[in-house]
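Example 3.2
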Amino acid sequence: MGGGIRRCLLFLILLIALGARLWGITNPLLDDQAWRQADTASMSTHMLGRLTDIPNVFLPQLNYDGVTPQRVELEFPFLPYLLAWTWTLFGWADIWGRLWSVVLSLITVGGIYDLGRKMFTARVGLIAAAIYALMPLSIYYGRVVMPEPMAQAWSIWALAMIWHWRNSQGDRGLWKSGLLMAGAILAKLPQLMLFPVALLLGFYPLKHKRVSQLVRFSLIVLIPPMVYYLWVHFNVAPSSQFVSGIMTGNAVDTSNLDWIFLSNNIQRGFTGSVLLLAGVGVCRLVFLRSPARIALLTWAGIGVLYIGVVCVRIPLDYYLVPILPLVALLSAYALDWIDSLPGTVIVIFFLVLINLKSYAYLTPKYHWNEEILSQAGWIKDYTSASSILILSGPQPMTLYYANRVGFRLTTIEDEEIPSVILRRYPGDFLVHLPQDEHKELFWEKVRNSYPEIGPGVFDLRE
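Structure, written as C-alpha cells:
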C-alpha cells in the first residue's frame, strides 16, 4: 500500500470520525453526563480573569456547596484552562468545549493509527483507527466537555512515542513521551494503568544500559501527578476530596457490584462483534514474535482487572473509555488475517450494519431538558448576581447556567417541613428543579410559605 493511499484512507477515517462526533455539537451541556460536563465548564468560569495566577488557577473550583466557589480535589484542569482562554479570546459558548473535545478525539484516532502502524503494519493502524472512530462509546465521549478526550489523546501518543524511541536506537526524545504520559495521568487518573504498558513498550527486555533511562522516564511520568494530587488533596476540605474519596470508597465497596449493568455498558459501548474480534486478536498475539506482544497482553490483563475492580463498582460508562484504544488495536490485529484491504473494508462495513442497534443506544444520550436551561436563564436575568441558590436536588447544572453559587438538597421527603430544612442554608432562592421527583405535599407547603417569583423559583428572603 503506497503512502499516498494510506494518507487518503486516514483522511477519510478522520472525516468519518469528525462527522460522527458533530452530532449534537450545538447541544448545551445538559445531555448525558450533564453533571460532569457542567462541572468541567464551571471550573473554566472560575478561572476567567485570573488565568495568569499560577499555580492557584489550577486548583479546581465548583459553584457548590457554599456561598463562594468551593475548592475541590479533581484532576488537573487542562481542558477548563484551555476553555477559559478560548472564552477570553472568543466569548462564552458551550460549543467551544465540544469542539476542543472533537479535535482531541481526532488526535486520538491519529495516534491509534500511528501506534498500530509502528507495532504491526500500516493496514493494522488504519483498521484500528477506523474501529476506534466508529465504536459507539468513542463517538459519544469524543464530543463531551470532560477530561476523557484529552487524557485519551495524550496517553495514546505517549505510547506511540515511546515505541518509536525504542526502535530509533537514540537517546533523545524519551522525555516527550514521559511528559505526555504524565499529562494523561494528570488529566484523568485511570490513565495510570497505561504506565506499565509504556514501560514494557519502551524497555522490555530490559538492558543494563537502559536502566538509568527507565528510572528517568518513571520519574518524569510519576512525579508531576504525585505532586499535583497531594497539593490539591491538602488544599481542599475533606468533604471536597472527590478523587481520593472515589478511589478509596469504591475499592472497598462490594455492596454495589452490578455485573449485568456493566455487561450491557460494555456490549453496547464497544459492540459485541468488536469484542469478539478483540478476543481473536488476543489469541493471535500469543504467536506474535515481537516485543510488543508482552506489552499488549499486559495491557489486556490490566484492562480486565480494571473492569473487574473499578468499572463494576462505578456504574458510569465513561470509566470504560480508557479500554477503547486497546480493543481497537486488538480487533484490527484480528482483522489483519484478511489478506486484502478491500476485504477488510467490506468486513468493517458489515460490522457497522450488524451493530446498528448499538448506535441506537446513543440516541437517548443526546436528549436534554429545555426546562433546565430556561429556568436557569430566568434566574440569571431576574436575580442579583450575588444571589445564593438552594437547589431541590443534587444535580448542579442550574448553578452553571445561572452563573450562581449555592447549595443542594440531596433528599426531600413529603413529611418534612420546608422552613426547618431551609434554615440550615444561607440561601436567597429555592429552585424546584424540573427533573426532580414530585413531592407534592412538600412543594404545597413551600408554595404556602414562600412566594413563587419565577418558574419553580421561590423567594426565601422575606
